[in-house]
Amino acid sequence: MLFSLLACGIAGFAFVLLALAGPAYRIGLLSLSNAFTLLQWGGYVGVGAAATGALAAVLAYRRGAKLRLAAGLIGMAAGLSAFAVPFEWQRRDRAAPPIHDITTDLENPPAFRAVVPLRRDAPNSLERPPDLGELQRQAYPDLGPITVPMPLDQAFNRALAVAQESGWTIVTADSASGHIEATDTSRWFGFEDDIVIRLTPWGAGTRVDVRSVSRVGQGDVGANARRIRRYLDALE
What we know:
The protein is an alpha+beta fold. It folds into two domains: 2-95; 101-235, Alpha-D-Glucose-1,6-Bisphosphate, Chain A, domain 4 (2-Layer Sandwich). Helix content is 52%, strand content 17%. Strands 1, 2, 3, 4, 5 and 6 form a six-stranded antiparallel beta sheet that branches. The longest helix is centred in the N-terminal third of the chain and has 32 residues, at 32-63. The radius of gyration is 23 Å and the shape is elongated.
């Protein structure tokens, strides 16, 4: 029973490390790199829990101890679950390009105005490097503007409502110019990404362009592209 309990205890410790990484970064106890290191160690400890649980399960199976077998399997499953968190994060990071500024209009991206002072201390600039457009085309060829079949005033009200329903903090909303700016804050690490929405009369409807930019991090593990897709899907 010792190995089974040990596996569960190690798995519990792994989850504690994982759970602390985000809040410790948010309140300034850890730098971002150290918080990610803590995540990695949570995964390593999870592997240790899984190995210990597997050993406990094998020993229990040989002895016909069903309760110990169940405890060992629980410890192994919990350890693998803890390992899966940083593993999935790294998988997404490697799959996504090292960019953090995504837009539906590569030729004339929507411009931020009200958000600019809020990003004064942000490591990431709002200036777009020359090769950014091509990197985005290769990674997210499907991203582009949409046209909604309604006049500008109705489209603006709908666009603002969807932004609010998304849980974003609205920074500014100007119906006359069809301009909305907002900030989306992640729950775990408190990462702040800024969004600007531009609405333009387009034939019998209204064209909607969106730009989403992270304040920190060279890459965004695809978060900005996913955010734009979800928003446009909800708007259509």
